[in-house]
Structure formats: structure tokens, C-alpha cells
């Protein structure tokens, strides 16, 4: 493989490279060399293990934000507080985590962030189970959010940096871990909360009569620590080669590629000369000075790169808007779904904890096939990522509105099944399209911006809920309208990553 050949190779049009090349031609050229090397290695054992371990982050991002809704009813019975405050505390932590870990990924690299985020969530999640009062519970869940909030920005960047272009669609399929997390936490909550919670008719609720939500936190915290241990002690994450060339560590990037090849029992022809040759050729043919970062100190360079051209600025702005809008809608609805199911079920005379959490399990099962359908749909010609995101968002909003017409708990469950199925497709595409569009050297920062947007609006959602009547359809109408807006905005994204290698 030669530098000249690579510049005319398979990835000449990758990820709208002409636009990226205007920003940093040296990095862009080196990224294409790395893409070819990773494609040459192919999808092997290392990438499949990475799919599993990165999926742990999707799992954590599913179960921990949902936990506030699942434990809400018994916790209110014991601690007597205004419901949205618990979600508010958790979402503040998620906001801090998304910002710190996402930006940090482009400063100190992906490796340590990948390992630490789950550890924080597990330790403080376990401690939350012993909370003596609401303030302690809210504070501990906020710290859990700091860890959990970094998972999606880091894990999506790590996976895209190390997977062949031919298998980038697996980032969309990775949302199956999100669905499995929903299913597992619902299966755990059903028996624990239904059997170890105060009776709804009880005038007082003591700790000894209300241990179900604590058992749930203990179990989930321990499970998260096990997943963190697998990441730290069993699977060895290699630093992103694209991040390494972004900070001028070409030799280390080459070493990583060769280590992946050896792990997959194959070989690669990549050498240091391929990268240095590309750099010389690029500099000889352009007057643009490369912007490769040489320091580990955070500057505004990574943020400016995402707005450097008009097309990139429109793309980044629309992605931030999409994540913010969907984050507000989903938090407003999902965080209070068990509470809504119970309160609406009470109106239908079947709002017991048993039925509420049984229905939550059914909804979780329905979401699993959505992840696989999303992985298929994003590769369809003429539809791709943008079309799948828009269609699934529109159908999600439609089922949300339809749920307000339910006149029985069975009808409510049916409409929510449609909502969960299409919303899981929507989330799967949203979580994948953003890191695919952002250049790898700025991907952590880009992921931080969009994740921060969804967490900021996640904080706003409980504030809205504080002034809205959760026993009415108001949160549902707001959520549905916002998701319809997201469906429209998705059509205006200027980049379509289908069939192109991420840079």
C-alpha cells in the first residue's frame, strides 16, 4: 500500500471527505490509510468482542436512566417527595457525564474513559440502594449519572474507530443492548417491586416493608460492576489509531493496527511510511496548514472543527437540535412511564404494581426486534440513515398521540408497544448517525455536544413535569409533538453516511 495509491483508493469519497479535507487534509488522508488497513484486516474476533464490551455502555445507558421511573412509585411512598425531583437529579448527573467524558475523549483518549465510566456507575449505584432518605438517593443517582453519561459518547467513538467500514451498520444494531437492558431491568423490577413494596393503600411506608427498590439497585449496581470488571480485566481496549494520528503519534497508530491484526489471526501491510508518505504528499499538494493537535490540553480546536465549513456547521447544529428535542421528549415520557401506566391503569381499575411492571416487561420485549430492523433499514438505498431516522421518529410520535385515546389498560399497552418498537429504531439510528458523521479526531467532542444537548433537555423535562399534571395526557402530547418535529429535521441533515467510511 503506497501513499499515492491510498489517496486514489476506496475511501476517496468517504464521509463527504471533500468537506472534511478542507478542514484538515493531512488528518483526512491518514484516516483513509487507516480505514483501508482496518478494512484489510476485516471484521474479526477483536471487533466482535468490542461489540459486546461497547454494548455494555448501551446497556448502562438504558437501565440507569430508566431506574428513576421504575422505582418512583415505591420511593415516593417511603420518602414523600415531588416525583420529578428524582429524575431531575439523575439527569443533572447525566449532563455532567456527557460533557466531561465526551470532551475528554479527544484530550486524554478513549481508553481510560471507556474503563472508568462503568466503574463509577456500579459503585455509586450499589451505594444508592442503602440511601436513608431522598436527598441521599438523589445525590447518589446523580453521581451514577456522571458515569453513565459518558458511555454513549465514548463507546460509539471507540467502536467506529476500530470497525471496518463494511460493518459500520453494527453501530445501529448495537442498540439491541439498549433493548436488552430495558428487558432485564423490567424483569428484575417486576417481582422485586411488586412483591417487596408497601401496599398502595398503606398510610405509612417503612423501610422494612419497602425493600424492593433497594434490592433492584443492589442488583443493578453489582451487575454494572461485573461488566466494568470484564472491560478492565478481561477485554483489553486498544487506543483509537485515528485519535493517535490526530495527536501526531503515527507509530503508535501503526502498532495498534498490527496488534488488532494479530488478535484476529491475520496480517496487515500498513507501515509507518504509509502514514508519513501521505503527510508529505498532502503537504506538497496543498497550502492548508494541518491542524493536528500536539497537546493533551483541551482547547476550542475540536469544537471549531465541527463548525469549520457551512455544511459541517449545519450538520452539527441539526444533530444537536435532534438530540436535544428527542432527549426532552423521551425523558418526559420514559422517566414517568411506569408512573403513567399505574395512574392511568388506576383509572381503568387495573393499576396494580403487578400489572404495571408486567406491562413494562412486555414493552421491553417488543423493543428488541427494533434494533435488528434498524440495522437492516439504514443500509437500504434511498432511505439510509436519514430516511430511517425520519420515518421511525414520525411513527413514534404517531403512536404516542394514539396512546391518549386508550380507554382500557389493554389499549394503552397496545399503543405503547408500537411506541416502544419504533422509538428503539429511532434511538438506534440517532446514536449511530452522529458519530459516523463526526471526524474521528473530533468525534469525542461532537458526541459530547449532542449528548450534552439531550442531557440538558433531560434536565428540563422534570421541570416541565413539575408544572404539568402527570395524571393527564399533557406530557404525552408534548412528547409526541417534539418527536414529530425531530422527524422533520432529520430530512434536512446534509450528510448521509450510508455506504461511506467514517473518518
From TrEMBL:
Residues 1-498 form the Major facilitator superfamily (MFS) profile domain. GO terms for cellular component: membrane. It is found in: Membrane. Coiled coil: none annotated. PROSITE patterns: MFS. Pfam families: Sugar_tr (PF00083). One of its GO terms (molecular function) is transmembrane transporter activity. Signal peptide: none annotated. It is a multi-pass membrane protein. Keywords: Membrane, Transmembrane, Transmembrane helix, Transport. The chain crosses the membrane at residues 48-77, 83-105, 112-130, 136-162, 169-193, 213-234, 318-341, 361-380, 412-433, 445-468, 474-495. Belongs to the major facilitator superfamily. This is MFS general substrate transporter. It comes from Mycena metata. The lineage of its organism: Eukaryota, Fungi, Dikarya, Basidiomycota, Agaricomycotina.
